[in-house]
């Protein structure tokens, strides 16, 4: 089932934009996380966590879901398939894992931004906010997305057993 | 169309168009790729590539480390992000003590940094 070239081009463009946009947004959150972790200025810490919560819901989550959705559509709409080639399968696993952890981690970011939203922060609050958790999660997310992007560009060789069977079937039907 | 015409007259334009054409061809039909199955006996499936094995080993090690952390009472794991997960901590900030937090009250299992 191959989609028409024009539609395929649109799906590929949407997938590249959402995936690279997601990666860029994670870099932004990582920068905010480092600022929130290391700054001595309470206002900077407050601003960093408020911005991270906003970015999570308005940028990260939509782009992650768009990347996952367009990636699945792109795979199913071409002969690559979802589970026929290892690089597609690994990329799918990475994207699903990163999206699920992101959705769960929005709870933590929501809590931290709630603490940061107070007019004045006590030393206790600063202690709660200056956690390496955000930097750790953003770093791991960045690493995973870099791996996924590299896989998409290099498309390393390797066909799954399912893909191999499908290829044999296709060859058998194409030969008279 | 006019822009296409201008781009086509430059090397950059030709290069971009060639890249897009190649990518589309590649995305549409993977049989021309190195993993298309033409380099090994088509009657038998090719073995699992080395890079997949490396990825699998890394994934298993990471999962094992996470499992050890959870079993040893560590303070991190997927359960911390879920509403019923173990390891949730009572909020300690002054905002909670003073009742400021309502909308942002952490869910029971949320990852509350200390």
Describe this entry's structure for a reader:
The complex is a heterodimer of chains A (176) and B (114). With 176 residues, chain A is an all-alpha fold. Chain A has one domain (5-174). Chain A contains 6 helices and no strands. Chain A has helices at 5-38, 42-76, 86-116, 123-129, 133-154, 161-174. In chain A, helix 1 packs antiparallel against helix 2 (42-76), helix 2 (42-76) packs antiparallel against helix 3 and helix 3 runs antiparallel to helix 5. Chain A is elongated. The model of chain A has no long low-confidence stretch (mean pLDDT 91). Chain B has a domain at 1-29. Chain B contains 4 helices and no strands. Chain B has helices spanning 2-8, 11-28, 50-71, 94-97. In chain B, helix 1 crosses helix 2. The radius of gyration of chain B is 27 Å and the shape is rod-shaped. Chain B starts with a helix and ends in a 17-residue tail after the last helix. The interface between A and B is large, with 45 and 43 residues.
Topology, please?
The complex is a heterodimer of chains A (176) and B (114).
Chain A: H1 5-38, H2 42-76, H3 86-116, H4 123-129, H5 133-154, H6 161-174
Helix pairs in contact in A: 1-2, 1-5, 2-3, 3-5
Chain B: H1 2-8, H2 11-28, H3 50-71, H4 94-97
Helix pairs in contact in B: 1-2
The overall pLDDT of chain B, averaged over residues, is 60
Oligomer: heterodimer
Task: Quote the average pLDDT of chain A.
Answer: 91
Broad shape of chain A: elongated
Alpha carbon gyration radius of chain B: 27 Å
Which structural class fits the helix and strand makeup of chain B? mainly alpha
Q: What's the helix count of chain B? A: 4
The biggest sheet of chain A amounts to:
none
Characterize the largest beta sheet of chain B: strand count, sense, and whether it forms a barrel.
Answer: none
Number of domains of chain A: 1
